[in-house]
Structure formats: C-alpha cells, structure tokens
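Students often ask what a holo structure prediction actually looks like on paper. The answer is less mysterious than it sounds. You provide the chain, you provide the ligand, and the output is a string of discrete structure tokens encoding the 3D arrangement of the protein together with calcium ion.
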Amino acid sequence: MGIRGVGSALAGRAARGTAVAAMALVMAAGGVTAAAAERPAAAPGAQETEVTAQPRPSCPRGWVCFWTKHGFRGHRGKVAGNNRNWQAFPERYCRSGTWDNCASSAYNNGRTHHVRFYQHPNYRGRGINIYKGQSRSSLGWMNDRTSSNKWFR
Ligand SMILES: [Ca+2]
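The corresponding structure tokens follow.
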C-alpha cells in the first residue's frame, strides 16, 4: 500500500483538517459560553482553562503525522496506510533525502487504529507504538530510526 501524500503535497487536505480543528474549537467555546450564561461568575475561570489547554499538533484526521524535529517542529510528513519502506518518501530536509531514519516526533490522528513504527523496512526489527490519539514529542530511542509503519487495532 502506498503513501497518500507527504508534506505539502496535500495542502487541500491539510487545510480541511485545520478547518475541522477550528470548528471543534468553536464548539468548545460554545460550551463554555453556555456554562457562563448559567453561572456568569464562572466565565473568567473557563477562559483561563482554555488558554492553558495543551494545543494538539496539526495533523489531518485519519493520518499519522511525523516531524523532522522533536516537539512537532521542523518539516511534517504523514501517512494513512501501511508503508514497508519510507525510502519511497522524499523529504529534502532529511539527511537521507527521504523520510527513512528521519522522524523525531509523531502524532496519531487516526480514526480507528494504532500505528507501529518499525526500525527496519518490511515491518522488521524493534519498534514503538503510537496509539490512536497519542502524540509523542520525542520518539526516544526510535529517533531518526523509523523505516516502515503498520496500523493495527
Ligand atoms: Ca531504520
């Protein structure tokens, strides 16, 4: 199974993901407003909670995204299927010129599945799981080692 776009190749998809995220934020804000209307004194506290909430890394729904640097920084790549060799995905900001051995942080925004990053191509060697909804600002010992990925339930 091939990749479904890497980096800026799918700007339209990324933009839609942002729109969905913005909508979710509006919905959350709506909830806060409703609560504030019932109890006006609670409004400042609710606002404070919103400000301190951890922002999610930017990643379209249904994909696992990964970045060239820790903390979801640098250049972003993403995959939505199983991929047995990340050498197939060019990324000029990686030493190898591809995503092979380059990912340093990741966020699984998949709808239903967890994903495993493998040390070697063809789903071999050791690996780490990135569970559905999980973000890892550092891949730890797997930093710059991922060479394939497979989804699982
Ligand atoms: Ca590797």
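Residues 8-52 form one domain.
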